[in-house]
Every structure is written in structure tokens, then in C-alpha cells.
Design a protein that fits this description.
The radius of gyration is 19 Å and the shape is globular. It has 296 residues and is mostly helical. Helices cover 65% and strands 0% of the residues.
Length: 296
């Protein structure tokens, strides 16, 4: 009961600044969770992770409890992901979204990881978050828009930005030159171009890097929006893909006040820098500067 109480009274309000969306996480998600245990265990796991972050003296205890609950949630969920239908698509949407946040937020698990292992950890977050689109968003979007979680499907209370994304910093716009100057296959160029476009969208929506945020409202959207081919290139550790990921790290850094994000942005940029080597270091100058990893 302690974890559920913490979710209802505290954690559910930290995911988004918009009240109607907070109410979905506080009320509707719990209500749906009582019918679908994998979702309820997922909620309790995230509440435990939150407590692990805000109660450092009990980090080990709550971190271990969070992982126990994650394992139970996955056990309950296994086999169901290929049986998505109109009756369970809301539960699976909520579960997949929260489980991705759990991977991002699991600092007790990542504290002692080296850069290579941390990169693997972040790529698993991106892969799982991306699966949300395949499982429920694409095939069940109309139903989700008419469901009890309708507020979560709203893009924004303000105008949805479109190209040319004039507020994106010139340093970030140079990513386009990275693709234009490279000798890549057309499929890779298209994947990178789409990933960059979606990154520019995120920068515009969240006013990166000028603003800071204490929630995760927009920063979790990019991994869902990037094309499958880009994720393949990421998993192959292609330098161009990793450099784009480092600029996503800048966006994460703008969300460092969120307990679920913390220093993930800075750590990600360090991990990419260690992976790509000196040849590509000029492309990382701006991300490194933004997170104060080097003197300027």
C-alpha cells in the first residue's frame, strides 16, 4: 500500500505538467491496473524507483524492490504483447510507456556501469519505447483517442511545430551537414534525416536548451518517433547515429530536474564520446559544452 499511495500522491504528478494528464496517471492508470496486473506491478515498480531516487539512504532497498516488481510485471505481460486488441490496448499502452520510463530512471542499476554498458542500457530504453508505436500507437490510435486516456494522446495545447523549426540553435542545425557530407546509402540518409527532423521538433516543443523541465512530457517522444532503420543503425554503433543520439542527450539534459532523467543526458554524451573516438570529436563540441563537460 505504501508504494501505491506514493504513486497516487506523488509520482503520478511528476510525469507531465498538464493536470488532465496527471489525472490519467493518478486515477485511470491505477483503475486499469486493477484489471491488468502487469500494469499495476509496473506502476508500483516506478513508484519504488522514485523513492530510491528521493530517499538516497534507502536507494538499495527501493531499487531492489523496483526490480522485483519489474520482473513480476514482465512475467505477467509475457505472451500478451502479440495479442493486442481493443479491450487491452489501453493497458498495454500505459504499461509500455511506464516500463520505458523505468529503464531510463533506473539509476540504482546504472550507477556503476561503464560507458559501453550504459550505452547498451539507453539503447534498450529506446528500443522498448519504440515498441510502443508498433504495439499500440499505430494500430490502435483511434481507439486510444476515444478512451479514458484520451488526454495522453493530445499533442499539445499549443500549436504543433512544423519545419523549419526556427528556434532550433544553429549548432544543432549543423547535424544536417553531418548527413550531407557523408557517403551513405539512401536508406541511411532518410533514416538520419527523419531522426534529425524529430529531434528538431523536440527541441522546439521543449525549448531546448534554453529551458529546463522537471517532468518527462516531451523528452520521451523522440525514441517513439524515430524510424526503425535509425534504431538499427544505432545498434550497429554507426558514428552518425551515435552523434545524433548525443544531441538527444542535450535534450535529456534540459530535463535533468526530473527525478526520472537526472544526469542521463550528460552520461549519454560521455558514453557517445567514448564510443566514436577523436575523429568525430568536433561534432560533439556543442553537446559537451552544453552539459559543461569541458571548459569553453
Amino acid at each position: 500500500m505504501h508504494l501505491l499511495h506514493h504513486w497516487v500522491t506523488v509520482t503520478s504528478g511528476t510525469l507531465t505538467p498538464e493536470f488532465d494528464q496527471q489525472e490519467v496517471w493518478r486515477k485511470q492508470a491505477v483503475s486499469v491496473g486493477f484489471s491488468y496486473p502487469f500494469l499495476l506491478y509496473d506502476i508500483l515498480s516506478l513508484a519504488a524507483l522514485h523513492l530510491a531516487v528521493i530517499s538516497p539512504e534507502k536507494e538499495d532497498f527501493y531499487g531492489a524492490r523496483a526490480r522485483e516488481l519489474q520482473n513480476v510485471a514482465l512475467t505477467e505481460f509475457n505472451g500478451l504483447e502479440n495479442q493486442v486488441n481493443e479491450s487491452n490496448c489501453v493497458a498495454i499502452m500505459l504499461f509500455s510507456s511506464l516500463f520505458g520510463v523505468s529503464i531510463l530512471a533506473d539509476r540504482p542499476r546504472t550507477t556503476d556501469l561503464g560507458f559501453t554498458d550504459y550505452l547498451d542500457h539507453l539503447l534498450s530504453y529506446i528500443g522498448l519505447t519504440k515498441s510502443v508505436r508498433h504495439l499500440v500507437i499505430t494500430p490502435w490510435w483511434p481507439q486510444l483517442q476515444q478512451s479514458e486516456i484520451k488526454p495522453l494522446t493530445r499533442v499539445s495545447t499549443k500549436t504543433n511545430p512544423e519545419p523549419p523549426y526556427e528556434t532550433v540553435p544553429s549548432e544543432c542545425r549543423k547535424l544536417l551537414e553531418l548527413i550531407e557530407e557523408s557517403d551513405l546509402q539512401q536508406s541511411s540518409i532518410q533514416a538520419y534525416s527523419t531522426a534529425i527532423d524529430r529531434l528538431f521538433w523536440l527541441y522546439t516543443m521543449a525549448d531546448v536548451p534554453s529551458s529546463s523541465h522537471d517532468n518527462i512530457r516531451w523528452v520521451v517522444a523522440w525514441p517513439i518517433q524515430v524510424p526503425d532503420e535509425y534504431v538499427v543503425l544505432l545498434n550497429q554503433r554507426r558514428p552518425e547515429a551515435l552523434i545524433i543520439l548525443a544531441y538527444y542527450g542535450v535534450a535529456l539534459h534540459s530535463y535533468r530536474k526530473s527525478w526520472a532523467v537526472g544526469d542521463a543526458g550528460a552520461t549519454l554524451i560521455k558514453a557517445v564520446s567514448a564510443q566514436v573516438g577523436k575523429y568525430w570529436s568536433s561534432w560533439l563540441s556543442w553537446p559537451m559544452q552544453i552539459v559543461d563537460l569541458r571548459k569553453t
